[in-house]
């Protein structure tokens, strides 16, 4: 559980509730506030994970959690609206990405887990995170808890729960990315930037698909995130599904109606992937993951292992992020040249 929050911080949170501070308002309240403020872009109402949220002005002190979420903000050039970001150190090289200037301009608030005290200390008016991307009932850090202390939230669309327990996923992964770009474009009054990015990404994906394997030439592909006893992989609603499919692969776990899920190794063996994509992040690096896959006896006769067809993509390529279209292009090139 987070540490108790100092009384002064709670007083500040109360002040944020009274002034609005750009956080989302209950439906109707933002409209009244916007009407008093006069005509203009605001108030705006968007739908986020099935909930309508109204903003009476653009948030000014956003805290983001994790690399993909943070780079969505950077891609929209919204650094000036951020109080900072929370991210472990295991998310790869951040100095060569297209949005490296965003990392230089924005404060790295913590390399540990995001929590309520941290965002209160940052004087956040909005937290952009997701279920299992920072928000978690077990840790007591949820949109509802933030709302109690006057802080708004925006949920990563890849992480939306679909009403089946805690299963996640309500739309195709790339649609989730485009939805978040457009929603944030409305929230921050940068709709032109959002539409330009969506158009650019759609073009990039279309070009990759035009050259990708098709029909019977599509290789069976498995995404390996981590796990020795049971592998963590992608279902139909996590980023790798669209990345694999639009790159010309046949995603072997496409029937799993969830985002990131655990399966049994017997399922992997039975579906006999011809290519394995490794998610590179964490204390266990890609080289260690590859070594395990190649030495794990139950996988010895799997086509990808027998023929040494293993490709590595970064974590930020595979979770919802503005890197997804480039990852599709990269994987499409590999699948074209893999020589199946």
UniProtKB/TrEMBL annotation:
Q: Give the organism, scientific name.
A: Streptomyces atratus
Pfam families in UniProt:
Peripla_BP_2
Which stretches make up the Fe/B12 periplasmic-binding domain?
Answer: 61-340
Q: Which residues form the signal peptide?
A: 1-23
Q: Which SUPFAM superfamilies match?
A: Helical backbone' metal receptor (SSF53807)
Q: Which UniProt keywords apply?
A: Signal
The UniProt similarity line reads:
Belongs to the bacterial solute-binding protein 8 family.
Name used for this protein in its record: Iron complex transport system substrate-binding protein
Is Signal set as a keyword in this record? yes
* Record carries keyword Ubl conjugation: no
**Top-level taxon of the source organism:** Bacteria
CDD domains for this protein: TroA_a
């Amino acid at each position: 559980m987070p540490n108790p929050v100092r009384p002064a911080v709670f007083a500040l949170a109360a002040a944020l509730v009274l002034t609005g501070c750009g956080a989302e308002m209950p439906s109707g309240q933002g409209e009244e506030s916007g009407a008093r403020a006069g005509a203009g872009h605001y108030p705006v109402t968007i739908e986020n994970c099935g909930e309508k949220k109204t903003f009476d002005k653009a948030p000014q002190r956003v805290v983001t959690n994790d690399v993909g979420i943070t780079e969505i903000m950077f891609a929209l050039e919204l650094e000036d609206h951020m109080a900072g970001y929370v991210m472990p150190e295991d998310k790869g090289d951040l100095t060569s990405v297209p949005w490296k200037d965003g990392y230089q301009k924005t404060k790295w608030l913590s390399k540990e887990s995001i929590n309520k005290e941290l965002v209160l200390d940052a004087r956040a008016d909005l937290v952009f995170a997701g279920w299992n991307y920072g928000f978690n009932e077990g840790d007591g850090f949820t949109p509802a808890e933030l709302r109690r202390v006057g802080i708004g939230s925006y949920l990563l669309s890849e992480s939306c729960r679909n009403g089946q327990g805690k299963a996640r996923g309500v739309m195709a992964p790339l649609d989730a990315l485009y939805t978040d770009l457009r929603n944030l474009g409305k929230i921050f009054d940068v709709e032109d930037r959002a539409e330009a990015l969506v158009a650019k990404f759609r073009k990039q994906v279309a070009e990759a698909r035009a050259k990708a394997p098709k029909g019977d030439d599509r290789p069976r592909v498995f995404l390996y995130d981590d796990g020795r006893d049971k592998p963590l992989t992608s279902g139909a609603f996590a980023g790798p599904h669209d990345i694999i499919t639009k790159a010309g692969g046949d995603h072997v776990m496409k029937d799993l109606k969830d985002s990131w899920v655990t399966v049994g190794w017997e399922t992997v063996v039975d579906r006999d992937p011809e290519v394995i994509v490794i998610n590179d992040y964490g204390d266990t690096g890609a080289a260690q993951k590859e070594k395990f896959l190649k030495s794990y006896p139950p996988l010895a006769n799997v086509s990808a292992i027998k023929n040494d067809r293993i490709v590595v993509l970064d974590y930020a390529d595979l979770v919802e992020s503005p890197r997804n279209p480039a990852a599709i292009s990269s994987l499409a090139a590999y699948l074209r040249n893999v020589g199946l």
